[in-house]
Amino acid sequence: MTTTGKQIFSTLDADGTLTVEVAESTFPDPKPSQVLVRMEAAPINPSDLALLFGPADLENAEFSPGKIVAKMPEPFASGAKGRHGQRLPVGNEGAGTVVAAGDSDAAQALMGQRVACVPGNAFSEYALAEAAMCLPLGDVSSEDGASAFVNPMTALGFVETAKMEGQKAIVHLAAASNLGQMLNKICLEDGIELVNIVRKQEQVDLLKGLGAKYVVNSSDDDYMKQLRSAIDETDAFFGFDPIGGGNNVDTVFKAMEQVAVSKMTEYSRYGSNQEKKMYVYGRLDLGPTILTPSYGFGFTYAGWLLTPFLAKAGMETVVRMRTRVLQNLKTTFASSYKARVNLEEMLTKENALDYRAMRTGEKYLVTP
Amino acid sequence: MTTTGKQIFSTLDADGTLTVEVAESTFPDPKPSQVLVRMEAAPINPSDLALLFGPADLENAEFSPGKIVAKMPEPFASGAKGRHGQRLPVGNEGAGTVVAAGDSDAAQALMGQRVACVPGNAFSEYALAEAAMCLPLGDVSSEDGASAFVNPMTALGFVETAKMEGQKAIVHLAAASNLGQMLNKICLEDGIELVNIVRKQEQVDLLKGLGAKYVVNSSDDDYMKQLRSAIDETDAFFGFDPIGGGNNVDTVFKAMEQVAVSKMTEYSRYGSNQEKKMYVYGRLDLGPTILTPSYGFGFTYAGWLLTPFLAKAGMETVVRMRTRVLQNLKTTFASSYKARVNLEEMLTKENALDYRAMRTGEKYLVTP
C-alpha cells in the first residue's frame, strides 16, 4: 500500500533555472525503523530557504499557482553543481500524526501519536521519518511542536559546545532571532554569560525585555566600545555567528583582542596569548568572510553544524537535550509565527518575498 | 659587572615614524636561570622582519650609517598602538658563546660553551638567554647552529600537530621556503604525505630535486586540477599557510571540498562531512584573508604559533624535538644563507630592501 500526497520540490538545472513547485508524490510504506507522518505544521527556517531558493532572483521570477521559476545567479548556479537536475524535497523539520509505522518496536510505539520529526521533506502532506529521531508530543499541538528540533537543539548545542570547550560566556551575532531568543533563555537558566549583538534599537529592547544583560547594537557609533566593555565584563572570547559574509566576525575578534591586549603588561609582536574562537553556523550574508591580520595568531574560525555536533556529542547528551526541549516546548523553546500558509500559498510572490527576507520575528509556518 | 655592546632597536612612534638603529646597550649580569651569550650568528627570519620593519615604506626611508627612519602606513601604524614609543630589541634566535652564567646548575653547565639560543634580541653583540631554552652545539659552528630553533621546531611542530590530530598528510603553501624544505625532509623521514604548493617552476624543480612527491604550481593554468589530484591521492585535508592574506587558503579549502564531494553518493545542501583544517602561521601578505562560502561548514581556519604549541605539547615532546634537531643540524635542519652582514651592514638600503623581499633561498645571516 502506498500513500500519495502533495509535496514541495526544488530543482536547479545546469543552465541556472530554479524551479520550485508543488507536485503529487508517492510515499512507500515505512521501513522497519521508520514511521509515515501526516504533516500538520512545518516552520520555514533559514536553513530551508538556502535549499528552497538560495540566492535565486525571486523579484523577477515567473509565479504561477503552485510553481515558481527563477534564475539562480552566478557563481551560485555553477557552484551548486552537485544538485543540478535533482528534484530535491525541502523542509528539515515539522510535526504531525503517525499514520503508518515500520515493524521495529520503536516505530510501532509511535503509531497514532502526534510527533515532532526531522524528515527533510517537511513541506509535504506526508513524510517518512526515522522513529529514533521523532519526539512524541503528548498533548502539545503540532503547531507548538513544529519547531522542536532545529532551533532548540542548535541553541542547546551552542551551550553544550561552550561547556565542552571550557567556556563560561558566549558572543552571539544576529542575536534577536528566534534562535537567539532561545539561546538567551538557556544562558540565563544555565548561568552562562551571553553578549548579544544586534543591529537595531528595537532588537536591543526585545532582548532586554527578555532579561538579557549584555545587548550591543552594531549600528551605534560606539559599537566597538560597547562590545569591548561587554567582552571585558564577561570574558567572552568564544561565540557563534549566523551571518557568515562580511567583517562581522573580524570586528568581534578585534574587540576580543583589544580587551586581551589591554590586560597585557608587555608588548608582543604576536598579539595576546588569549585564544579567541568564533563558529559560523549560517549564511545570512553569502558574501565572503573577511578576516584581517589584527588579532595575532590566537584565533580559530570554524563552521558549526547541528548534525555533526550531535554525532560527536553522543546519544546520552542528545537524549538529555531532547528531554529538556520536550519539557519546555511552551516556554524556553516556544516559537512564534507571523503567518500560516499551505503548500500553494507558500509559493505566491507576496509570501515568498516576505518570508525569504528572514526578518526577526516574521517566521512562516507551513500547514500542509 | 655589566657588559656593554651594540644592539639593534626598532621604535614605532605614535605619528607612524619607524626608527631602526644600532645603539650601544648595557647587559646586566644573568639571573640565576640565564646565561649571557656573545652572539656570533643570527638569521633574519620573516617573523623578525615583522617586528623590525613591518610594512614600513623602506623605498622612501632615510638611511644613515646604522640607522633607518621610515614611515609606517596605516592601518598598521595605529594598529600597533601597543608598541608606540617602545624601543624594542629584535632577533628571535641565534648562536654564540656563553660568557657569563647565572647561579643555577643549568646555567652554570653552559659556561664557556657554544649554544643556540632564543633571546629575542639576537641582533646584538650580547644577549641574555634562558638556559633551559639553550641548545649546546658541541662541535657545530655558530653559523650552522644559528637557525636551530625557529624553522626546525616549527617544521617539526607541524608534523607533531598533524600526528596529534590524527592526520597522515599535510598541505603546505609557499612550500619552497627554508622551512618548507625542512618540512619536506621531515615528512619523507616520517612517512607523512606532503602536498607542496609553490608559485614558480624553479621551486617545483627544487622540491622535486629534494625528493618531494607532490609539488603543485599555483601559477599553472591547471592549478586546481593539480591540487585536487594531489589531495585525492594523499587525503590531505589539513595544512599550513604562511601567507595569510588573499584567497590562497580559500582555494585550498575549495579543492579539498571538491575532492570530498566527488566521493559523495548523494547531494547535501551542507556540503561534505569531510573536516577540512588549515592553520595560518605567517603573514607574508598583510592583506585580509578571504574565505568564500564554497565548502560548507566542515572547515576550521586557525592561527598557529610555535611558543603556544610548545607550551601545549609539553616538555617531553619538546625535548624529543630538540634532540632530533641537534642530531640533524647539518642535514635535515641545515639552513643556507645568501649573505652575511654585521649590525651596521644590516641597515644599509641595499641590504634591507634585499632581505626584506624574503625571496626563497635568499636568507641573510647577521654576524655581529
UniProtKB/TrEMBL annotation, chains A, B:
High-level lineage: Bacteria, Pseudomonadati, Pseudomonadota, Alphaproteobacteria, Sphingomonadales
Name the record gives this protein: NADH oxidase
Gene Ontology MF annotations: NADPH binding; oxidoreductase activity, acting on NAD(P)H
Keyword terms of this UniProt record: NADP, Oxidoreductase
Signal peptide positions on this chain: none
Species: Allopontixanthobacter confluentis
Highest taxon above the source species: Bacteria
Domain called Enoyl reductase (ER): residue spans: 16-366
